[in-house]
Amino acid sequence: MSTISRKLAVLAVAFVLGACARNAPALPPDLGHLPPNQRLLVGDAESAEGRMDCPELQQAATQSRVDIDRLEQAIASNRGRNQAAMYFGGVIFPPAYLAVRTDEDAKKALDELQSRRDRIDRLSKAKRCPAGGN
Question: How far, rounded to the nearest angstrom, does the alpha carbon of residue 15 sit from its chain's CA centroid?
Fold first, then answer.
C-alpha cells in the first residue's frame, strides 16, 4: 500500500468514527442527596409527563424504551454501510464519501427521547410510583 493510500485510509477511518459517533447529552445535576420529591428539574412538574399518573408514566416509560431501541437500531444499521463507503471512498473512489449517512435527525431524536425518559424516571420516583414499568 502506498503512502498516499495509507493516509487516505487513516483519513477514512477518522471520518467514519466522527460520522458514527455522537456527543452524549448533558447530564442533569446530581440531586441524589435530596428526597425523590425534591429531585425534579425546572419544568418537570409542568411538562406533559408531569400531569401523568403512575400507570401513564409506566406506559410512557415503556414506549420510550421501544422508541429508543428503534432509533439505536437504525443508527447501528447504518454503521456498516458508512464504514464500507468510507473505506471505498478513502482507498478507491473519493466521491463514495457522499454515500455516508450521519443520522443527525435520529441522533437528535434519541437525545430528546433519553431526556424524556430521565424526566419520566424522576417524576415516577417523586410520585412514588411502584417500580415495574420503569
Answer: 20
